[in-house]
Each structure stands twice: as structure tokens, then as C-alpha cells.
Amino acid sequence: MTLPVKQSIAHPQYNPFTVDNDIALLHLATPAKFSTYILPACLPSQNLAERMLHRNGTVTVVTGWGKDNETSHRYSSTLNFIEIPIIDNKECSRHMMNNLTQNMLCGGVLGQIKDACEGDSGGPMMTLFHDTWFLIGLVSWGEGCGQKDKLGIYTKVSSYLDWIDSVRQGWDKV
């Protein structure tokens, strides 16, 4: 399924060297019709995200159509998903060569091959809280993919709620 995009807006402070502010919004030409693969997810308030959803060990679901591993030459024809816990950024930093910022979340299981990969970038990291799915992260970067001693890094969506709201308000005026 292809969804025509009317406009895309990347975060104005995106830094390609640190991969900080790795977020963009897509304004669809027509509303998406919900289906098995297209469902809404709620954006948590900053308070809910920081107090409850970003806790170390919170189980998340990451989905994507990317490669199964870093040596694969093709993208998946089926939607893949993994269940991984949030890992505290301080703990995560011990296993990563690149620095994390306060706008990033870390997830994965050391010793297991559970990771997003090429083609999954921008995909959702969600968690279920009180029977509601919340979008808490976006697949951003990693050091390889599916490495047993590495974790995945996700854009922390709650850091961008004001920016998301301001962009959407601009779209509503058009």
C-alpha cells in the first residue's frame, strides 16, 4: 500500500553527526484508512512518558519492514515485530561507542538478536499502558543490527510534543 504524502517536515535541529532530533512528520494527502497494518497510537504526555513509560524494563513493541539482518540484501515482505525492554541510557552507553542524548531511548536484550535493522528507520516503538498503545519511540540508529553485544537507539517522541503540535497546527490552518 502506498500513501501519498502532501508534505514532509524534518526537525530543524536534526544533526546527522550525532543523529539527535531524528524525527520528521509526514502530512498525508488523504487520511489513512485503518487496517491490520495501519492503526492509531496515542502520544503520551511528557509527564506520563517520563514517570511511567520510559522506565527501565518497560516492555515495548517495535515493528518494521526492514531487513532481517545486516547481511540480508532484501527487505521483508511481511511486517516484523520484536518485543524488547527499555534500557536505562547510562547502562546503554556502556555498550555503545556513540553518545546518547536526552532525546534518545535505548532498547534491546544483550545476548539476543532482537533489533531493528536497515529499512526499519522511522518505524514505531510502542508500549501498552492501561489497554492503550502509546508511541514512545522511533527507530533511529544502532551500531550494526542484531549484534549480541549492542542495543538499538530510538528517538524519544515525548521530547518533541511541542514541535509536533506546532507543525500540526500549521497544517490545520491550510
UniProtKB/TrEMBL annotation:
Keywords, sorted A to Z? Blood coagulation, Disulfide bond, Endoplasmic reticulum, Glycoprotein, Golgi apparatus, Hemostasis, Hydrolase, Protease, Secreted, Serine protease
Q: Where in the cell is it found?
A: Endoplasmic reticulum; Golgi apparatus; Secreted
In the record, biological process GO terms are: blood coagulation; proteolysis
Q: Name one GO molecular function term.
A: serine-type endopeptidase activity
Peptidase S1 domain ranges (all copies): 1-169
Keyword Methyltransferase listed? The answer is: no
In terms of superkingdom, the source organism counts as Eukaryota
Recorded GO cellular component terms are: endoplasmic reticulum; extracellular space; Golgi apparatus
Q: Which reaction does it catalyse?
A: Degradation of blood coagulation factors Va and VIIIa
Leader peptide range in chain numbering: none
SUPFAM superfamilies in the record: Trypsin-like serine proteases (SSF50494)
EC number(s) stated in the UniProt entry for this protein: 3.4.21.69
Q: Give a short account of what the protein does.
A: Protein C is a vitamin K-dependent serine protease that regulates blood coagulation by inactivating factors Va and VIIIa in the presence of calcium ions and phospholipids. Exerts a protective effect on the endothelial cell barrier function.
Q: What is this protein called?
A: Vitamin K-dependent protein C
Q: Which organism is it from?
A: Sinocyclocheilus anshuiensis
